[in-house]
Amino acid sequence: MRIAFIGFGEAARAFTDTLLAAGQDLSFAAFDVKQEAGMAEAMASRGVTPAASPEAALLDADWIIAAVTADQSLVAAQSVLGGLAQGQVYIDINSVSPGRKQETAALIEGHGARYLDMAVMAPVHPRGHATPVLVAGSCAEALRPELGALGFSFDVTGPNPGDATAIKMVRSLFVKGLEAITVECALAAAASGVYDRVMPSLERSYPQLDWAADVPYRFERALRHGARRAAEMREVGATFDALGLTGGLAREIAEVQERMGALAAADLDLEAPLPEAIAEVARLRGARFRGA
């Protein structure tokens, strides 16, 4: 089997690593708009053939796995249309709204390929392609044997594109929202000089949470993945808008994630005691977005 990746970032690299480690008889090609040296090394070290264009990556591929940022998912699909062949499977793992996946499915299937909506439901490290996923689409049941043979941990949620991603989008409002609330609360506490009062109070109110571990973990995730999560949360907003609910809540979460992702983690002393580290994030965030 030959797999082509459109986008070769964290998810694509994690999938490749674990598929290779499992001893599967596979070959890989990839195209990514980022053509810097680090990308070339990431491909070369894994034996992935770099492609000069999205269409070139598709040559002789059985599966195409689209793994780009949420705001580029439709662009990625449009970029491969000229190279699609009858029977190829386009696996869309991007974190986008059901409406976006339905729109993408119509494009892909209109050019003779099969479309699979795949929602990745946990961090891709350390399990890679064995990370729990949900899949949906008209070909989902037919692909059960291949997905199982390759070691995917999957559940078929329905026959329609969007059935899988709908679950992820709704869940993401809570997961990324809880992260954003934690980050903003801690930042406000540090900026107000009341961190040592607020956090013990929260610990007493919610003793089931490990605050000493939870707060730094959520900060690290927002700093490292904020830009990608902001794009996802805007898709969550579109999902909630389409349901007649409050999409604006997700867009505010996206704003928090984007502001955290905009900070250069290399400029922060993450080894400092937590209140001091959070105070420094608060200072940097305030200076950046006040135009200082």
TrEMBL record:
The active site is at 168. Residues 189-259 form the Phosphogluconate dehydrogenase NAD-binding putative C-terminal domain. Residues 2-131 form the 6-phosphogluconate dehydrogenase NADP-binding domain. It holds the Pfam family DUF1932. Keywords: Oxidoreductase. One of its GO terms (molecular function) is oxidoreductase activity. This is DUF1932 domain-containing protein.
